[in-house]
Amino acid sequence: MTHVVLCMSDAEQRMADALDDLNHVFVEFPDLNGLSRSKQLDASYFADRWRDGVSINLSLLTQTARSDVVEGSRYGDRMDYADGLLRPDPTTFRRLPWRDDTARVIGDVEHEGTLVAGAPRTVLKRICDAAADHGLTLTVGSELEFSLLDRTADDYEPTTTEKHECLTTAMEDVSPFYDTLYERAPAFDIDLETFHHEFGAGQLEVLFDYGGPLSEADRTFRFKQLVKRTARDCGHHATFMAKPFTEWAGNGYHLHVGGRRDGGNAFADGEELSETGRQFVAGLLEHADALTALGTPTLNGFKRHQPGTFAPYTASWGYDNRYAAIRIPSQGTVRVENRIASADANPYLVIAATIAAGLDGIERGYELEPASEGDPVGDRPRLPATPRHALDALEADDVLVDALGEPVIGEYARLCRQELERFYEETTVWERNRYAETL
């Protein structure tokens, strides 16, 4: 009898060994919202068939955060809600730290033997290839703020009160949550580095290690799941919603990007930006309106951008200036920090768009305007004030549409516009309180 011997990679071998004592595997993928969609498979079934892929409804890619089908989607009604395949990536296989018998693995989405162009992970892979063509090795680091909440009878309230930035007692108040998070993080290949309380009530930030663009996007994707599940297990609720409370600070997603070329820091000239670094930043400013659209996926997120705050209000840059949209930190390696995005943004799209915009600045040799000192409101162009302005700018940005692909830009804009229309169809408590008695 002839036996076919498959040569397995190290990642495949580790996955095969782990499956021996597991019962379940979640095969997941990020949708356009950045949410995890998945199927749970029997571990033995997965072990026998994972190379063949897992059938998945392609419309899940473009559904809203509340799983409403998006009308006119190329992956929904325009293709009769066809199935595609999830191809598990063994390098992303991780055991769940809260279930001894279960693991999860991220898959890439295919249709008829081809990677789906509108899948966020596929988009980022293509952008990474473009960076390599420039001779750049990029590293990225995600900084996400989130709100830790407690349920009330009919709403949520922050677990801590406001104005406790880095206050030790406030951090001690939520130490059971952080201790559990810290214990679980290594199972998801996340090395937690720093924890602190932010300015807003219940607002926390947990920093973790940097990595390559794709691995960091995968890590950020897992980190959000880890935070939300750990909060629930500790009797709280965690949200990355951009502006959960009117009176308190919103949650941002600050993306740090570093570049190396020929063994050196491509973005650095001493302690300041090199020519390449200046061109990269100029590219971000050139495409700031489109970056706002991809970094602010909901109407709620636009309420985070307020003048005179640390949430950027203008298309601006500066050395160690937290008022600016693009900041060059003074501590550590010279790098570029994109501060535009909200914490609820899709990390794959934020990273891909940031790199694509920066690469365009390098390709075209954009000149960088003088750095802003102090609050640049009034001196620099305002970022888009509404989702419609931002989405119009995104769809008109030929460079980013070409780099990321019309399938993802078109689907993303369609999803966001449908959510916006649903909001304008809804009568809110604010409207009743404002008008019912007086009009």
With helices defined by DSSP (H or I, 4 residues minimum), what is the helix count?
13
Helix content: 25-40%
Ends: how far apart? 86 Å
Number-wise, the strands total 19
CATH topology of the largest domain: Creatine Kinase, Chain A, domain 2
Rg from Cα: 22 Å
Mean pLDDT: 95
CATH superfamily of the largest domain: Glutamine synthetase/guanido kinase, catalytic domain
| Backbone shape | globular
CATH architecture of the largest domain: 2-Layer Sandwich
Total domain count:
2
Main sheet specs: 10 strands, mixed
What percent strand?
A: 15-25%
Q: Low-confidence segments, ≥5 residues, pLDDT <50?
A: 1-5
Quickly give the structural class. Answer: alpha+beta
- Under CATH at level 1, the class of the largest domain stands as Alpha Beta
Key features of this structure:
Ubiquitin-like (UB roll); Creatine Kinase, Chain A, domain 2; ten-stranded mixed sheet; seven-stranded mixed sheet
In words, what does this structure look like?
It is built from 13 helices and 19 strands. The chain has 439 residues and is of the alpha+beta class. The protein has two domains: 21-114, Ubiquitin-like (UB roll) (Roll), CATH 3.10.20; 126-425, Glutamine synthetase/guanido kinase, catalytic domain (Creatine Kinase, Chain A, domain 2), CATH 3.30.590.10. Strands 8, 9, 10, 11, 12, 13, 14, 17, 18 and 19 form a ten-stranded mixed β-sheet that branches. Strands 1, 2, 3, 4, 5, 6 and 7 form a seven-stranded mixed β-sheet that branches. Strands 15-16 form a two-stranded antiparallel ribbon. Helix 3 runs parallel beside helix 9. The termini are far apart.
